[in-house]
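Example 3.2
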Amino acid sequence: MSEETHIPVTNIWADGGMCNNNFVMQLTANLFNRKINRLRHVDMPSLGAAFTAGLGIGFWSSREELKCLGCTEKVFYPQNVWENYKPVIDHWEKALTRSMHWYSKP
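Structure, written as C-alpha cells:
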C-alpha cells in the first residue's frame, strides 16, 4: 500500500467483530510488520453513526467529548516471524498471478 500511494503507514486502527480474535490481530500485526491498535469499542461504524446523531441533537457538545470513546484497548506488536510467513505468501502471490485472467468480463 505504501509503495502504491507513497504515503507512509504510521498507525493502523482495527475495528469490527474480527478484532475480538487475538490470534487474528497478532497475525495481522506480524504480516503487516506494523503495530495494530484495537479499539475499546470494536463496532465503530455503528458508533460513528450514533456519535454523529448525538452531536446533531446536542447530546454531546463537541467532538472532543467523543475522543475518549475511541480509545485503544490493546496494541498488538509485530513479532520477528516474517520469515515464517514468507514462503506461504510467495506461493499465494504465484497462485494469484496464475488466476488473474481466468474470467473475462461479460
